[in-house]
Design goal:
Length: about 500
């Protein structure tokens, strides 16, 4: 007796369809599972056998073989309990082919036959759709998540018994209905807002420019100058997530097991601020059973590294490749895993150990100490930061005035317009934002008029700019022009962009 059903495994953030076959034949009682199985999948054997027995299904004491294919792909995760159990129920004659056909099964079993939620269901459901399946059957707590994928009927079941009863019914009852667009609309607005910051105009302006072109940003200034305050508010001026972006991001959260229980989607742009003691693996992803790290969890939003020089240098160096490629590739003996790393990097740091340089009335650091502190940030990392701004100490009169600044909603309108312009301009390109312009594309999209060329020539000589810095100025000026709806980059846009370079030249000299 033979039975075959569909399951799936997750590699990186994509689901891959796995065929689960079970055969029950005469012979000495045995239970073998084959097909390049990870340790958790091998353990399914005992769980499935006990769960079936405790649910009242008797599998005759005979020779049982379960095969998971394709054979060349390592099967991981605990979602295979359910498809293995269903394949056995098919082979033992409890279920018919037409009752399980066209359905993708995923779920972990308890010994009593009840089903437990698993990670990565969104990727599995999306994989079902790509492979032409119409239904997924998952643990009840994962049903909302699976239902997000348009064109997939999602059924949540609580136990093996419940599942068999549902499959035996002609209509299987209604699938779970979730409207992703509605979920995104219903998101509650942030409690944070830029209007809470009075004064600090340069700091806020830099946040706006960085957000509009998805530029990486560094704030440098003394403690209490509003660096963290500003960084935390950047997601509030980014446009709302589209459903497509939200699904991509939610896949990452689901695989990491961080999708809030019962929730179907992540509806807000993330703000992740890992502590400087965090390990490289937790930051970029990896581990024995690979998982996405902070850089992937910050996707479509902000990765904030506060106290930048306090991070291990090697941890920071690992960020270089994902910053360039917007994804991270993790190699293991069993295969390679790719996670998205589509984040905006925002960093903050004190200018020296005590935090008060260049205010010599307060800073007691020696020049050598200051140099040592600043040089913890490597040149290649600085190279990937387009905008660098000094955050001055908050003046007493700013606090005294208590006037409210411009609201995040207002700033967001300008950011959205600038992004819209970029979307149109780069319609035929493989990138979305000015920050992603490279080489010849910079020449093509950042052309200057006569005045602008003159200004850039002066700056090049005066500031002894490197080619990299020159390009960064052009890209940032492009974003500033877009914020003002100007097709031509004008001298005033260049001047502002140059001012963001002045800062890192001041601290790191000709090194940048
Ligand atoms: Zn100091």
């Amino acid at each position: 007796m033979f039975g075959k059903v569909m399951g799936a495994t997750v590699v990186g953030i994509e689901g891959i369809l796995i065929q689960v076959e079970a055969d029950i034949s005469n012979g000495l009682p045995s239970f073998d599972m084959v097909g390049y199985l990870g340790a958790e999948v091998k353990e399914a054997r005992e769980r499935v056998r006990t769960a079936l027995r405790n649910s009242g299904f008797s599998i005759p004491p005979s020779r049982i073989t379960v095969n998971l294919s394709p054979a060349n792909l390592r099967k991981q995760g605990n979602g295979f309990d359910l498809p293995i159990a269903v394949a056995l129920l098919r082979a033992a004659g409890y279920l018919k082919e037409e009752e399980t056909d066209g359905i993708l099964f995923a779920g972990e079993l308890s010994l009593d036959g009840s089903l437990k939620g698993i990670h990565g269901v969104l990727s599995l459901s999306s994989c079902a759709k790509e492979n032409g399946l119409k239904k997924v059957m998952v643990p009840r707590e994962n049903a909302n998540e699976a239902a997000i994928i348009h064109g997939i009927d999602s059924y949540g079941v609580s136990s093996l018994k419940d599942m068999v009863e549902r499959l035996k019914k002609k209509d299987m009852e209604e699938p779970v209905q979730i409207d992703g667009e509605e979920l995104l609309k219903k998101r509650t607005d942030d409690s944070l807002d830029f209007s809470e910051m009075s004064g600090q105009e340069m700091v806020k302006r830099a946040a706006e420019v960085a957000a509009a072109g998805f530029h990486n940003l560094l704030y440098i200034g003394p403690p209490g100058s509003g660096k963290t305050m500003a960084a935390k508010r950047i997601p509030t001026i980014l446009p709302a997530l589209t459903l497509k972006e939200s699904v991509e991001l939610s896949k990452v959260y689901s695989i990491a097991g961080l999708l809030p229980e019962g929730e179907a989607l992540i509806v807000k742009r993330p703000f992740r601020n890992p502590h400087h003691t965090m390990s490289a693996v937790a930051l970029v992803g990896g581990g024995r059973i690979p998982k996405p790290g902070e850089i992937s969890l910050a996707g479509k939003g902000v990765l904030f590294l506060d106290e930048l020089p306090e991070f291990q240098r090697e941890t920071l160096e690992i960020l270089r490749q994902p910053l360039e490629e917007r994804q991270v590739v993790i190699s293991r003996v069993h295969g390679t895993y790719t996670y998205p790393a589509d984040f905006q990097l925002v960093c903050a740091m004190n200018p020296c150990k005590c935090g008060y340089y260049p205010d010599r009335s307060k800073c007691r650091c020696t020049p050598a100490e200051i140099h040592r502190y600043l040089s913890r940030i490597s040149k290649p990392l600085l190279d990937r930061i387009d905008i660098c701004v000094e955050t001055p100490r908050i003046e007493y009169r700013d606090l005294e005035e208590k006037r409210r600044g411009e609201s995040s909603a207002n700033i967001r309108i300008r950011v959205e317009q600038a992004m819209e312009i970029q979307k149109k301009r780069y319609e035929k390109e493989s990138f979305l934002f000015n920050s992603q312009l490279k080489g010849a594309k910079i020449d093509e999209y950042c052309q200057l008029e006569k005045e602008g060329k003159k200004l850039m020539k002066q700056a090049f000589v005066r500031l002894e700019l490197s080619a990299r810095s020159y390009e960064k100025i052009l890209k940032v000026a492009r974003t500033i022009a877009d914020l003002e709806g100007e097709t031509q980059i004008l001298s005033c846009h260049l001047a502002e962009a140059i001012s963001y370079r002045d800062v890192d030249l001041k601290y790191w000299g000709g090194n940048v």
